[in-house]
Amino acid sequence: MTNLFNYIPRSSIVHKLTGATKLAALLLLTFASMTSFDTRLLGGMVIFAFAMFGVSKIKLKEVAPVLWFTFVFMVLNNLLIYAFSPEEGVAIYGSRTEICHLFGMYYITWEQLFYQLNVVLKYLVMIPLVLLFVSTTNPSEFAASLNRIGVSYKIAFSVALAMRYIPDVQREYHDISLSLQARGVEMTDKEKLLKRIKNVTTILFPLIMTSMQKIEVISNAMELRSFGKEKKRTWYAARPFRKADYAVIAGSVLVVLLSVGLTFLNGGRFYNPFI
Amino acid sequence: MWKINVKTIVAIGIGAALFFVLGRFVAIPSPVPNVTICIQYGLLAFMAALFGPIAGCLIGLIGHFLIDLSWGWGVWWSWVIASACFGFVVGLLGNRTRLAFGQFGKKGAINFNLAQAIAHAGAWIVIAPVLDILIYQEPANKVFIQGGVSALSNIITTAIVGTLLCFAWAKAVPDKGSLKKEN
């Protein structure tokens, strides 16, 4: 319950990078993977992302449940894409190489397979990067990192507050839920759906009321300490940048440039091997 | 409406924490497989109507981003941004409900529900699918059907949860000007 974000402390190069570096790299690399559909770039990034697991000394076994879950989600999503639009790849690549005919309007074409391979690669880039970020970055460093990459410190402080109060809210929710169930409010699937939503809502009232009081108390305390008076603030969890940090950020920027460059080179976001 | 004071900052933090807990741990499975009923948008609509568009936008953004991070399945920016837009629009349109003054009547309820319905439709039928197409190049008919289903289920849950919350809140805080000076 306390380790919501699955932080796994180790001593590795990736852990030693500052949170700001990892956040910047995460954002840049996800941006690159979102804009580009170039199979070579995506494939390279997938290999890189999984290799980083080895470097950061996080074993795949430790994150296996999430990986399985996403795998199932990925398969379902791909089936849905195929069910809704079996000729999407043909429309994108502008050619049609049939492999076989299933039934009705459903054909298997190389273009469709290649397009869905790209979709899978996009997932495969994103998932390990995010997993790596959460498992190597201490959550208490998160707000400082946001501030470092240019987010206003007030907003960064909101994020810090959210992380700080998630366990509290969770505990309160649990307590209220138990006490209501003791009074006979049914919240399991024995109840009909609409009634059940209403019953869960009954937990919300006490939860929201106490949270509103909390907002009052915390904002008073912060105002008493002159929060928001200065233009800048320092962070306890912030760490100075080192050479490795600059190198990682420069590398990430390079990948983004590469993705943009490839878009121009390919004359579009797709790499088309069917020409 | 556009000013960020200390209270707004705290409201964003606590609101995002509430959004996170409701979205992460309170999943009511619906009859349709793989679609869960999202109670957290009722809360988000309430907070947005109470604290304004900036708070609504950031609660949606931070809350949804943290949910995605904690699952570890990647950050789906298209849907995170749609959540943020939902909060923003409800804050913008629902600002006239006078909820902040502890008043919420029939008129307020209609206003609130119109705002949330418009915001949900915009977020899930326009923003999320369009971004999905732009970023992931997914087939248009698939994402629009997904968006339509989520918009519908979200509008219904927000209508129930959000409206009840607003009424309860208006009852709990004293009306502005309810105290009179005695002679």
Defining traits:
heterodimer; A: 275 residues; mainly alpha; two-stranded antiparallel sheet; 10 helices; B: 183 residues; Arp2/3 complex 21 kDa subunit ARPC3; two-stranded antiparallel ribbon; 6 helices; 72% helix; elongated
Describe the structure.
The complex is a heterodimer of chains A (275) and B (183). Chain A is built from ten helices and two strands, in the order αααααββααααα. Chain A is mostly helical and 275 residues long. Chain A folds into two domains: 13-138 and 239-266, no CATH class; 152-224, no CATH class. In chain A, helix 2 (19-35) crosses helix 7 (142-148). Chain A is globular and about 65 Å long. Chain B is mostly helical. Chain B has a single domain, classed as Arp2/3 complex 21 kDa subunit ARPC3 (Orthogonal Bundle). Chain B is built from six helices and two strands; from the N terminus they run H-E-E-H-H-H-H-H. Chain B has helices at residues 6-25, 40-51, 53-71, 77-93, 106-136, 140-172; strands at 28-29, 36-37. In chain B, helix 5 (106-136) runs antiparallel to helix 6 (140-172). Chain B starts with 5 loop residues before the first helix and ends in an 11-residue tail after the last helix. The mean pLDDT of chain B is 85. Classes of the chains: A mainly alpha (275), B mainly alpha (183). The interface between A and B is large, with 72 and 58 residues.
* Biggest interface, CB < 8 A: A-B, 72 and 58 residues
Annotation, overall tally of beta strands of chain A: 2
> Poorly predicted ranges of chain A (pLDDT <50, ≥5 residues)?
none
User: What is the subunit arrangement here?
Assistant: heterodimer
Largest sheet of chain B: 2 strands, antiparallel
Q: SSE order of chain B, as H and E? A: HEEHHHHH
Largest sheet of chain A: 2 strands, antiparallel
Strand content of chain A: under 5%
Total count of helical runs of at least 4 residues of chain A: 10
Distance between the termini of chain B: 36 Å
And the CATH topology of chain B?
Arp2/3 complex 21 kDa subunit ARPC3
Total DSSP E strands of chain B: 2
